[in-house]
Design goal:
Length: about 180
């Protein structure tokens, strides 16, 4: 399945993404990235990262011009929902890291931060997630806050990295009872 996914992620970055590619990527994320074999997980995540960069590159102009990008929104919503529904406190580390990494990739490429892929390739902030309301789920936010109490140091660090990227205007930050 990795070989087939690598064909999709390595396609020309100017070529539009077709519906079957979104479906295949969703199935790949749901069925393949959670594995107990670190070397396979690393290969899966590398391919997935390239696919998300391709998504961003292809949709960049439409996002900047506020044109409709429903297939992208539907795909990201589906992936974020999958990650959210499959993360729970003290989930085995092998199962939680890939899901955290997917959320992190989405936040880095479609969120409100400047993302440095390397020295020569820097992606400016899109603020796309905030504009369309993705990653705004109160339950996901609460899960990330509770993950700060995890017994796994890497889970705490990753949860902090994800929380640090939420906008200051996020609704939970405005609720004094929640902040307390």
């Amino acid at each position: 399945m990795l070989d087939a996914f690598q064909l999709i992620e390595a396609s020309n970055w100017t070529e539009p993404i077709h519906a079957f590619e979104y479906e295949f990527a969703t199935k790949f994320i749901k069925d393949c990235i959670v594995t107990t074999f670190p070397d396979y997980r690393q290969k899966f995540m590398k391919s997935l990262h390239h696919f998300f960069i391709r998504l961003r590159t292809i949709n960049y102009k439409d996002i900047k011009k506020n044109k409709p990008v429903e297939p992208l929104v539907a795909f990201l919503t589906n992936v974020i929902d999958h990650c959210q529904h499959n993360l729970y406190l003290d989930k085995p580390i092998e199962g939680s890291f890939p899901l955290f990494d997917v959320l992190k990739i989405i936040q880095e490429l479609f969120g409100g931060i400047e993302y440095h892929l390397n020295k020569s390739r820097i992606f400016e902030p899109l603020n796309f997630l905030q504009r369309v309301g993705l990653l705004e789920s109160r339950s996901l936010f609460n899960f990330l806050v509770n993950s700060l109490k995890s017994s796994w140091a890497n889970v705490r660090r990753t949860a902090f990295e994800l929380l640090a990227r939420y906008a200051d205007s996020y609704q939970a930050f405005q609720d004094p009872k929640f902040v307390n």
